[in-house]
Structures are given as C-alpha cells and as structure tokens.
Amino acid sequence: MSAVKNVIKDNYNMMLLKDYLREAIKDAGFSHAEISKTPVGTRVALHVTRPGIVIGRKGSGIRALTDKLALDFGLKNPQISVVEIEKPELAPSVMCNRMASHLERGTAFRRATMWTLKQIMEGGAMGVQITISGKLRGDRSAFEKHTQGILPRAGHHAEVVVDEDIAHVKTAMGLIGVRIRIARKERLIPEFEMRADKTKKVKQEQKTDSPKKIKVEEIEVEGSKIEVVKVEGKEDTAKSESERIALEAKKMEHIETLEEEEAKLK
Fold first, then answer.
1. Residue 92 and residue 21: Cα distance in Å, rounded?
2. Are 195 and 130 in contact (CB under 8 A)?
3. DSSP assignment, residue 8?
4. Nearest to 46 by CA among 28, 29, 64, 34
5. Can you tell me the distance from the alpha carbon of 94 to that of 103, in angstroms, rounded to the nearest whole number?
6. What's the CA gap between 86 and 31, in Å, rounded?
7. Residue 75 needs a FRET pair 20 to 30 A away by CA distance; which of 33, 102, 126, 216 works?
C-alpha cells in the first residue's frame, strides 16, 4: 500500500504543480512541464510561448519560481529550463487558456469558439473539436460541440494523433468548461496518410513553409546556468499573452455568429 500511496501522492502533487504554473506564468503562454529526477536534482522543462516573461529581468522570474518549487512543492534542487513552443496554435493547453481568457473578458462563447477553430486550422491542424459546457445562455446547463477537419475519435490512432486539454472559466453565470482536441498531421501513421496531388502539395510547401532555426542559449543567474530554447523566424507583435488576447478581441468583433446571420435572414 505504501507504493500505491506514493504514486497517488506524486500524481496529486504534479496536478497541483500544473495548476500553479498555469496561473503563475499564464501571461507567458504556459503549455506543459516535463519533470524528471536526476542525481543532481530535479530537472523542470517549461514549454511556453514567450520565454522572456518566465525568465524576467536579470533572471528574477526564474529565481522566484525556483524558490517556490523547492519550498512549496518539495522539489529537490530544481533546475529550470525554458523551451519556446514552435506552433502555439497546435498546443491544446495554450488554446484552452486563450479561449478561457476571451470568455473571462465577456466575449460570446460562440464567437470565441469560431475564432479558436479558425486559428487552429490556419495553424496547420488536421482537425479540431471544441466542446464547451456549463451555463452558456440560461439557468440550465448545456453543452455544444464544434468540429472542423478530420479528427480520429477512438482507437490507437486517436491516442497517437490527437492531443487534448481542459480549462475551466469562472463567469457571472457560473463555471464553464472548455475542452479542445487537436489532430496533428505530422503524427499520421503511414497507412492512414492523407493522399493529395503531390505536385500541388510540394508547391504549397515551398511557398508557405519557411525554415525555422532552433537556437539554444545559456543564461547565468547567480552562478547557475539556465537553458532557453528559442525558435527563430517567428513574427509576433504581441509582447505577452494578455496583449495578444486584447488584439484578438478587436479582430473577433468582425466575426458573424449564427445568431447575427439568423437576424439578417428574418
């Protein structure tokens, strides 16, 4: 029973740690954390969209985060490395947080859903499914599913190709849950490869795909080295996730929802 209790305790601590990181470095676009134990200490790799926010000025953010992980979560000698996400639109946790932020700002849930669907499919996903549930329009709880593209539903292929994440939003009406499932093309199994005109496919890849370089930097903070993995060639005007949410909210105003289309037809 002691081994079972230890496993349950470790999983519970990892859940608390993930919830803390989701809130603490929310503005950096936190996706997930990879934790591994080494003879020297505990290695923590944080996957975010904006590494500079996590590091902070002169490493102040890293120092505070290291102390927090060591004192409150009991990690022995945590060694933090920051990894920049190459395609944030294909990370379900990042898109869940963005959609949750839009709902917190008071954006209509269908408008936010349509915008998120559009961003994910334009990011190069094979398929996406967004499920939103809770008190959406009235006192009774309801749920809606919106799907676009090709998304395996069950079986081994779905486990390999599809990533998913869940986020919860507190609104004036009550708690709303958001679940996003994304199918990625690069994980397709050979026998289920999507066939298309090869000449057209090659031409599109030459036009759209630009080579992206991955750069690894080491920053010294009080004698300890921190690895920062950056993706070069990315253009993003927003300096933080909150600023990006504000910019997206302005663009989202031009999207017509189903209610607005029905009102025009009447």
1. 16
2. no
3. H
4. 34
5. 14
6. 12
7. 216
Tokens representing 128 are 């996406």
Amino acid at site 153: R
User: What are the tokens at 90?
Assistant: 């294909």
Q: Which CATH code fits 88-207?
A: 3.30.1140.32
Q: Candidates 3.30.300.20, 2.60.120.1440, 3.90.190.20, 3.40.50.720; correct CATH number of 2-86+215-235?
A: 3.30.300.20
Give residue limits of the domains in the chain: 2-86+215-235, 88-207
Tell me, what amino acid is at 2? Answer: S
Within 13 Å and on the Cβ side, how many CA atoms surround 250?
5
Residue matched to tokens 């999507």: 194
* Cα distances (angstroms) measured from residue 38 to each of 75, 78, 123, 217: 11, 10, 36, 21
* Confidence bin at 225 (pLDDT 50/70/90): low
What are the residues whose beta carbons fall under 8 Å from the beta carbon of 134, sequence distance 6 or more?
Answer: 141, 142, 143, 171, 173, 174, 175, 176, 177
CB 8, CB 16: distance < 8 Å: no
Q: What is the DSSP letter of 238?
A: -
